[in-house]
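Illustration: KCNKI protein.
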Amino acid sequence: MASTAQPLRGKRACQKIFWAVFPHACFILSLVIYAFLGALMFSHIEGNRKVNLSEEYRTFLQSLWYISRNLSDNMTENEEIFKDKIHTLLNTAERDWFVNPKDIWTFFGSLFFCCTVFTTVGYGNTYPVTRTGKYLCMLYALFGIPLMFLVLTDMGDILATVLSKSYNEFKKLQSKILASKLCSGSTCNKGNELKSRAQTKVVINEPLTIMELLKSQAGVKRKQIKYRNAEIFEMLIARENEHTKPAGNKSIERWSSCPELARGKTMCRVIENFDKIGKQLEKFDVPIVLMVLVIFVYISCAAAILPNWETRLDFQEAFYFCFITLTTIGFGDTQLEHPKFFLFFSLYIIIGMEIVFIAFKLGQDRLIGLYKKVISFCGEKKMPSKKVYPK
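Result:
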């Protein structure tokens, strides 16, 4: 009997983990499939378009030929004037005159473009030219951006939970270290004795109500109010947990005995997981300085790695590029020579955008709190003082 029960427990545990992870995996997989479908669509539409040499292109070539002939005829012309003319002329040139669309709109290039669309980065280096591509780009962004924000919110909950627990554990460890330094041997022993005496005075009888519990404690009135309340709530919680444990086991046995009910309960739990998206971000509360430090370290790590394949970038330029990317500003002034290598950084971009999003959320909460304090302060100053009139 025990041998058959153990595999069943393991199977149920695996199913529980699977259904808990299912919503998160569903969102990420949807975003990946959406990006791949967009890459196939744009590479086919924009990559196979025909390049028509316009009248502007012919005018550009004529001006370039005229400047070159003038330079050859008049060698004494100032070099600065020649540079200015060339610079002005090249600014009027369009990239499509000199680049084959198939070289830009490869599968990886289109995938990179799709990532810049639904992450709202929009570098501007790659953009659709055909009318069909522009319409499809608007439609693609219309559905892709909400999906991206959903993934950011969902994974932001996970990241917020990890950061909160790490920060709380660090605070507990810090308080323990400080307590061990401040507490000497004699004072600790006295404190432990007082604590043990206080605990021996409190006895929990299982059927007691709150009133009976209060009446049964002879020394309750003599204790300080804050300690008395803490002890009462701890006892009530302990007794409540003892009463709920058998009921929980019975419910598990009842659900496990009926597969249809178990399946329905599992579906309800999955739906509840969808409803809880974004709740952890609302509860998240850590110092804003800590989040700024996390962002600085996160961007610095990428800025140290990125120049390995983008040789034109040094650490400072790479740091600037990563910051502009993660904050979704995307000026486009820094261009990548190998965008397909940067696609392997997609997970880095998503996690980094979540960290920046959490930092912005914390900053927003702090600003709201500051505005509330300022408005309350101004309201108190402008409140007219009450005048007391004699009877």
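Reading the tokens back as a structure: Residues 183 and 247 are 43 Å apart (CA to CA).
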